[in-house]
Amino acid sequence: MNFDKYIDRNEYPTMKWSKDFLTEHFGNADAIPMSVADMDFKAPATVIESLKKRVEHGIYGYEGKPESYFTALEEWYQNRHGWRIAREHIEPCPSILNAVSILINQHSEEGDGVILQSPVFFEFRMVVKSNDRVVAKNPLKLVDGKYQIDFDDLEAKATDPKNKVLILCNPHNPVGRVWTKAELEEIAEICKCHNVFVIADEIHGDFALPPYRYTPYLTISENAAQNSAACLSPAKTFNIAGAVDAITIIPNETHRHNFHNFAHRYQINKVNVFASAAIESAYIEGGDWLDALLVYLQGNIDLIQNFLESNDIDISLIKPEGSFLVWLDFRELGLDVKELQKFLAQEAQIALSPGYWFGREGAGFARMTIACPREILQRALDNLAEAVKKLS
Ligand SMILES: Cc1ncc(COP(=O)(O)O)c(C=O)c1O
After folding, report:
1. How many domains does the chain have?
2. How would you write the pLDDT of the chain (392 residues) with one tens digit per residue?
3. Cα 294–173–370 angle (5° rounding)?
4. Is residue 355 part of a domain?
5. 201 in ligand 1 pocket by Cβ < 6 Å?
6. Are residues 313 and 232 in the same domain?
7. Ligand 1 mean position, distance from CA 108 (Å)
């Protein structure tokens, strides 16, 4: 595991690095790509070996998920996060957003509201809209540099009978909060009381940085578990988004049955043999790799923090509690949304996801993917410092 090593990703049509993507979204094909939420690191050697072995077998026919796949998943969550997942609650699914979309369908009707805690992962809004539901915003509050849930507003939104579902991002993309047990308990109480179904997207669960700890939402209480579903995936954790599927945990028997039937009706229950192999090996042997990755990411976060402070740059880092995505506050620069986008892409030559993509509340911010060799991050920071100097 050499996270400092630069690997050319242009051999394949990589979204993040593609000139077309950079031109389309940033008007600069040469901007340093830091927008798409995947990593510029090789997957753990164990995953690569396991995929090679699967390829060598030569037959890739119809298969079930092997018993060992489920055991690997259960042991990962038990050992790493203290969560005992019941085997019968597991429903595999092609992707997290696929599961989110099905769950929205099953727990609301067209025209109903789905609560989003903005600024939040922009695809949630798209999935809500493409299902002809309406976004009901429960904006996060930024208090002393830390994002918090506005529980009064959440209660108000949950009380409205039109709002049937909350999509919880735990930990939160893009603001990097690892929600505490107490915060999750409060969400669970409000949602249970007003019959709002909780879809807990926990794809970033493995990224909690010490001393923060990821609390799986379904472990909060039996009540919470019966009124929700968790969407899990090792896609981000091991940088294997293009090679894996996802896992849905649905403790309520009726809800699970409905989900299962839906997957059957739309024939989305086929097994990808490479996804099974990648996931199983990552969960069995990927722990050391992940530990090393988290240390490297913390080093990158420290680099940003120290760089901004020592160069006295008017940009604030919202301290990430667990993520390879950092949320930067550019409001002190006094640029409007369009000016900021131009400043970042043209002057600083870096492609960051503009904050407004994550909801109006994100205006003046931008998200930076920091899972890249430190040398690339340093180059991006130098560019930024230079551009800020010119600005003043
Ligand atoms: C919070 C969150 N959920 C889901 C996804 C995408 O998951 P999938 O590719 O499995 O649909 C992402 C990717 O950035 C994400 O950040």
Report:
1. 2
2. 799 999 999 899 999 999 999 999 999 999 999 999 999 999 999 999 999 999 999 999 999 999 999 999 999 999 999 999 999 999 999 999 999 999 999 999 999 999 999 999 999 999 999 999 999 999 999 999 999 999 999 999 999 999 999 999 999 999 999 999 999 999 999 999 999 999 999 999 999 999 999 999 999 999 999 999 999 999 999 999 999 899 999 999 999 999 999 999 999 988 999 999 999 999 999 999 999 999 999 999 999 999 999 999 999 999 999 989 999 999 999 999 999 999 999 999 999 999 999 999 999 999 999 999 999 999 999 999 999 999 87
3. 45
4. yes
5. yes
6. no
7. 21
Same domain, yes or no, for 297 and 249? no
Given ligand 1 and candidates 121, 279, 323, 324, which is best to mutate, with the most ligand atoms within 8 Å of its CB?
121
Contacts 24+ apart (CB under 8 A), 54-58: 54/273, 54/274, 54/277
The reply to whether 292 and 250 lie within a common domain is: no
CB-ligand 1 contact for 173 (6 Å cutoff): yes
Considering 243, 264, 285, which residue would you say is the last residue of a domain? 285
Is 69 in the same domain as 216? yes
> Could you tell me if 251 and 295 lie in one domain?
no
Alpha carbon distances (Å) from 54 to 230, 287, 387: 29, 21, 48
| Nearest of 146, 123, 124, 148 to residue 136 by alpha carbon | 124
102, 232: one domain: yes
Domain end, chosen from 285, 301, 325, is at: 285
Q: pTM of the full predicted structure?
A: 0.97
Q: From 67, 72, 89, 71, select the one nearest 219 (Cα to Cα).
A: 89
Q: How far is the CA of 203 from the centre of ligand 1 (A)?
A: 7
Domain that holds residue 134: 60-285
Q: What's 312's domain CATH number?
A: 3.90.1150.10
Tell me the three-class secondary structure of 363-381, residue by residue: CCEEEEECCCCHHHHHHHH
| 102 Cβ closer than 6 Å to some ligand 1 atom | no
Two tokens at 372?
Answer: 């890249």
277 with 299, same domain: the answer is no
Residues 344, 263 share a domain? no
Residue 9 lies in a domain: no
